[in-house]
Structures
1.
Amino acid sequence: MKSYLSLIPLSAKVHRRQNRMTNLCIIFAVFLVTAVFGMAEMGIKLEMGRLLEKHGSQALVNLSSNQAVQTMILAAVVLFVLILIAGVLMISSSLNSNVAQRTKFFGMMRCIGMSKEQIIRFVRLEALNWCKTAIPIGVLLGIVMTWALCAVLRFFVGGEFSEMTLFGVSPIGIASGVIVGVVTVLIAASAPAKRAAKVSTITAVSGGMENENITKCAVNPRFYKIETALGVHHAVSAKKNLFLMTGSFALSIILFLSFSVLIELIGHVMPQFSNTPDLTISSADHSNAADTALLDKISGMEGVKRVYGRRSFFSVPVETDSDAGQAEVADLISYDTFDLECLVKDKLLQKGSDISKVYGDSRWVLAICDAGGRLKTGDIVRVGSEELEIAGLLKYNPFSDDGSTNGEVTLIASGETFVRLTEENDYSLIMIQTTADATDEDVAAICSILDENCVFQDKREQRTTSLYLAFMLFVYGFLAMITLVAVLNIMNSISMSVSARTKQYGAMRAVGMDERQLTRMIAAEAFTYALSGCVVGCIIGLLISRLLYDNLITTHYSYAVWRIPTGSLTIIILFVVIAVIAAVYAPTKRIRNTSVTDTINEL
């Protein structure tokens, strides 16, 4: 052996099983960054192509100021930082447990003359040695994932993504993946390397370092059994390990809750209404002048999926029984049966609304008004000689860009009720939804049957469905990866922590602890980590979730109110519990399969 550094590849072979999960953490970190930056570069190239086609080469001059490009770059950078932090915590936890398991080895190296600086260098180079295989695998997986996502966007989402490059290779994505892999490992190895350098020769040779924190205070089994008390004590006695484990669990929860806000943000920025039309027909003077017969005529034409219409009267004099903020005028709009059904389907009605009363010729209407409570369900509104009762309220105003009412009141009635109130049969707006295979010729045929008093608009190019699906695919995909990494990290960390105490557990078995007690002790340690991580993660995660919600959503959509995301909390906590249960099984089985005599011989 020419140098002590020659031990690094030998150590990697000997501890291949222990290093497996750490390698997976590096692979996932590199994979995520490579995929994120790869998709960002593919998106920027797609935007460049669109701008070139639309505006020529001049558009590329101001590419850096393009909002879509800025959004993609900002998202990629934020994800880079978050993945870096998550990777550092995960790998640091694994390395700390790895060092604790090899206390005797580092002590022997000190005995034969290795300095503290050499120990630190050894641990860092050993960690970098994992990068030789982990980084290429992570980069390759990231490239493949980028190809897969591009294929999904091109063939399943379509729309503006129909020109997405399928097998593009992103140099920026590859470079970013390599950088995050190396930087993460170097940062994560710093503290464990210093810890290994502090091992004293006497303590290390005796293998006592792993026990040094156990005897500092007595275990109190007053409230639970001794094995449970020991498990909790093992978790809280090693402060640095508890901090890393808690931080790692908490970060996964924080990331999950933070990215859940993006799902709601996308829903507000690009609301997907079931009654969004592809084509619209309105009268030139915005009156109810679109002939009712047009609906029957258009519904039988090629490329038409559905036709429905609305009638409207604005600034209609109304009276209410409300003492405060009495409305003097309101807008009255009719909804056909399909429109009313879409309100339920899109969950636009406030709790307590009963839309079934509104259908047909009735004396019930829906209302859109300020959140302050100008009108509420059950109030009476008088329109002319008719008394109408409010059957429900909408959560926000679907007729404005930001969902606000600007102090106005809108009443929504069924088509039959509107005709009875106003004696107006014709429509102010006819809306058409086309079939997936509708052609430009089909649209032109619809336009040709209209007279000069009708205003025809083709809104197919304004569809946001494909972009919405792309964003949702990205966010849900990243949430899935966060969950997967969290589960793997929990299993790896607990397994490494248990492996570091193998000798202690063997000694406990030798003095009479049975397998059930051993399992309960390890489970208590694991759930202590999980509980501390969940508490810290939920507290910080909810605070960040509300902060993000208020700044990203409520600031622009005043009707939006943050609520505790019980669904997201339940999902991530459930995965944490499942991961802990799975993590306890493997190490306890390994310890049970190791004979007590073999463990005692190592003491």
2.
Amino acid sequence: MQDTKVLTIALAGNPNAGKTSIFNALTGAHHKVGNYPGVTVEKREGSIEFQGRNIHIVDLPGTYSLTAYALDEVVARDFVLNEKPDIIVDVLDSTNLERNLYLLLQLIELGLPVVAALNMADEAAEKGIIINHTLLSKTLGVPMVPTVGSRGEGVRELLETTIATFDGHTLPRMPNYGADIEAHIKTLEDLLKEDQAFATAYSPRWMAIKLIEKDPDAHRRIEGLGNAADIQTATEAAWHWITLHYGKDPEIIMSEQRYGYIHGAVSEAIHRKRLRGISLTERIDRFVMHPFVGTPLFFFIIWAIFKLTFALGEYPVAWLEQRFGNLEAVVQRSTLPAVIQDLLINGIIHGVGGVLSFVPLIVILFFCISFLEDTGYIARAAFLTDRFLHAIGLHGQSFMPLMLGFGCSVPAIMATRTLKSPKERIATILAIPFISCGGKLPIYVLLAGTFFPSNASTVVMLMYASGLVLSVLSTFFLRRTVLKGASMPFVMELPPYRMPTLKGVLWHVWEKTWSYMRKAGTIILAVSVLMWLITSYPKAAGIDAFTASARSSVTAAQPGLSDAAVSAKVEGLVRQYQLEQSIAGRIGKIIEPVLAPIGFTWKIGVALLPGLTAKELVVSTLGVLYGAPLDGDSEGPSLRQSLREAPDWSPRIALALMVFILVMPPCFASLATIRAEAGDKWLAFQVAYSLALAWVLSFLVSVLGGALGMV
């Protein structure tokens, strides 16, 4: 008979220990697994059935200790304390057990059942580390199961052991801090037990230890207890005795006691073979981390990624553009009513098709970045850029959120939770929107390919580089004005190099690409249809008279034109007349005076508005406004040709618009994330600051472009 009670398992562990790999292997989910600490910035959940049990598994953010400082560590600690999972599985990095066991001891002190996964067992064996997991399990009183999460090895055994431990009500053995410290712990335990509700909510022993360690969260939790004064007195007595007896701060002593306990357990259960030579990771790092070679190599790799993206993506992009052009021709030749044809062509094909044509570029770019991330190189890049980031007022760990910004600003902003300094965290959040996300890429490619065809990849790369420079300069300014404060030192372990699995990299690429395509099929489709609607209605008054007048004017001005050419020109003039009389035209005319100094017309203003929803919509809106697909193989000009021939466009305007897109506020989803992570004050600041900066910089680019003859 199936047990109807849901068994809740919490996966805990140090950053980069492989929790998410174990989670994926257990649940079949495919959440991001990056070879970099801090990838999981919020808890992830999944449910499975196993041996007739309903099991709920929660993957917590990585944390080195239950004394939490960064927001991702707070998420992990609060879940364990407040939600009280039935059992905890601590995922340990087998190649660095002493450091990983520090968290395990703190989890043991919670008084909950605990099982340990000796993850990356294969890497430990390669390094000559022999772990007697049976002896280690006996010493610590915690069942230990060797696993290789990335390949799913040992995962079934881990699940079986976890269930057996829970069913057997097996609790781990508590570490001992020595008779004198244990006496102080016992005094505090007894005082905490006087409040029965509090003793039920929290482990009195764990809370007593945290009070001795001067954990600020523990002290907040005892406020309001009837005997809070007595608890504080006993805590201060423990502090005084430990400081007097050991000559060190109680936090340091408790930490040393734990590591002493760990060292004793590890010395018996772990043996190391003497390996000849140096490891592959060390050999690679001698070159990659070289002070004179490392940084130029990093920039060369980024440059190579962009060159590869455009070199390989050119052909599939052209193929997709042609397919959408052919689809338009099919609709034009159909017997559908004119209004339906207009909706399908100008509302959907020109809108959604224009965005989907850039999917190959997204795939290639994400593949390269995911590959680098999974190898462990991105962690090296964080160290290489730390000195520079520190100089402008950011933390070396800000590098990862900034890198994630190339994909999407939402997870990038959430990844700032790994930063412990609130001011550095806010500064990083405000810098991320200047990084060119995947949604900006289609705009760059369209405008650069249209107005700078011989140097398109260079122009696009220049926009990406400009975003990085702007984020640096903006951060430098903010950290010396509204976000003054010292930068925290950067401490982070370098993971070993690992060969990414093709399955893992492809899943990362699919996850990002599917998110992009899903947006095209929902938000972009809806806004494209809306843009078609507001550009097509209300129907302009006197359209027939205007058409006749336009035909006469064109025929008189260019008497040698064929009937087809006259009809095409007249159609363009009529569409322009309709646009100016439509809802979109009226909105554009209202905002045009603000944008006119830059050189932007009302059409560009209309195209920018849906860009606040999603940047990709600028391309689809331009397709609707100019009534043209990206490719010109269908009947009529392509969007590139239409923009190139339009009197209100030029290389100067295109470059100024790319700068405006780069700097303007991010999409609504990103703004909502900024609000959630930083609050209303910084959301308002971000919007006002980026709008003002976008106008000023695009104006300067336009003026400078005009002075250089870019008309």
3.
Amino acid sequence: MSTLEISVGQFSDAGVKPVNEDAIGLHVPEEPLLTNKGMVAVIADGMSGAADGAKASRVCVSNFLSDYYSTPDSWSVKSSAVKILTALNRWLYSQGQSIYGSSHGLVSTLSALVLKSTTAHIFHVGDTRVFLLRDGKLQTITRDHRTHTGGRDFLTRAMGIELSLDVDHQVIAVQPGDTFLMTTDGVHEWVTDASIREILLEQHDDLIGASRSLVQMARRNGSNDNLTAQVFTVHTLAKQDQESYYNELTALPFPPLLEPGYVLDGYRVMREIHANKRTQVYLVTDEASGNQLIMKTPSPNYSDEPLYIDLFLHEEWIGRRLESPHVMKVIEPERPRQWLYYLAEYIEGQTLRQWMNDNPEPTLQRFREIIDETAAGLRAFQRMEMIHQDLKPENIMITGDGTVKIIDFGSAKVAGLAEIEVPIDRDVLLGTERYTAPEYLRGLSGTNRSDIFSLGVIAYEMLTGTLPYSMVLSTRNLNRVKYQSAMPFNQELPRWMDSAMAKSVALDPNFRYESLSEFIRDLTHPNKGFNVTQPLMQRNPVAFWRGTTILLGVLLLISLINR
């Protein structure tokens, strides 16, 4: 196993100006933040024409560094950074307006680099620059947001200059030996790329000296601005080899199959609730507190399968980050664990599958309540940038008081975790075939619309007792199946509800709902955009075929006359 190792150099000088309005920052956090969030380097240049460019640049750097590490570790780097920059831009703009009465109150350019696992994410607004030196070749990664008008250069984008913000984002695979350089225009406008390359190569083992040399050369060449350079070289990347990764996964042994009365880490087994070939679920009592909990244990059959253990551990990791009355709550153990398992709240009730068997003809009101609360649980996943990927009636509980809870999330995909390189392939199809979105069958990645598809299938099945395509979808039949209206199976169903379900289970995700709220709204209120007029064949089959017969007779008569 290797950890991230870098060397860093920084140098900043006011130059000929009385105040230095540039700002820089770099932070390499401790674990687990280093793995889950990565290291961050930022550079900002307060606009000289702004009322307080120095404050703007300092706020940009300090707030990005602190706020980035405050975002959920389930979020992707892009989501975290863009949300922070958007909020920061609005703050700068509003403060500039309220304090200085101008859109040029607090304005700064900014470039930020997040190195997570083996990938660099670059975010850029303005005319600071990020360079990459690799194998002796220097390339400029960012593009200046400037325009030349009337003999002068003007910024076309900056932090705090407008209420809306457009951020450049790009991703680069990082290699050991890569050197990244970040500069303000006071440096790169006065030092040629050839000179930058030469200095970085000659002083590769003294990056502080290299940063100072770049600034000094720019000043000798006549720079009339603040001058700042920040450079770091990647020596090793944070990567896990297969052996170390497997050792980490198997740090805790699998527990044996448990019988009633058995005590494991202070939890007494009351009874087995559910078991299959992959997991066992027990009702246990914490002997210290008397609380009843659920204990989920992995099957001993998979003790030597890294992917299985990885997914089991991630189910607990995911559960601890979800907060919703409609998602099963994972419980932090009170005592150190000696075995591999996790604890969750005990939910008394029945699965949605059992409820559907008991209620084959639910009222539309109760149907909508169940789908609405299931959607609320899915929103908790979406807020954390997670996709459930295995939503089905067996994974949904209805409590004694009627509350709906999603209880299983072992197949969920987490955007933030997907960015971390591990020596196993997590991108496998884990869903249940009756509810799996077509894009998975086509080998594509899922999105929140994939979960909407699964919810749409569940909604359709609740109202009809069958599937929306009359069969289980597969790679062989995707190109020939067609949605079958739910109305022949449920005479009380309004056409606009049928249209809503049809849209939720569209084979092409681009034609599905973009958000859960849209789907829920259309299930409860007629969407005027739907064509709710029934074809004559469905409204009055007898009239349809009578009219068809008459028309064919007329056409036949005309044909005979024309002979």
